[in-house]
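hey so i finally got around to running the thing on that chain from the lab meeting. sorry it took forever, my laptop kept dying and i had to restart like 3 times. anyway pasting the input first so we r on the same page abt which one it is
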Amino acid sequence: MEITSMVPVLDAANIDEVSAFWASLLGGTVETDDGWHSVLVDGVPRLDVQLAPDHVRPEWPGGQPQQVHLDITVTDIAAAHQHAVGLGAVPLTDPDRDAPAGFSVYADPAGHPFCLCWN
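ok and heres what got predicted. didnt touch it at all, straight out
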């Protein structure tokens, strides 16, 4: 499985505030899209924030679980899908993997979500 990038993604109801915070903290900028913000540092994506209107603030330790996942961009989604499933990943979505771009959501063996993305 050839990976071209991997970016952590934070869920947030207030993506403007959260992405601005991280951009300021990391010395970067924010690129916005509908319901999605990318924090870039020196032009490189370092963190994404996705709109999650029902987001509940995590409490640590204990309380609400933390809400973060990885977006892993791959060159060959069919091979990456087979590799991930072969290792025990559970597909949570069933996208058209023949589409020129997209993403598929999986859970690792402990239930942590991650996305395999292609473009």
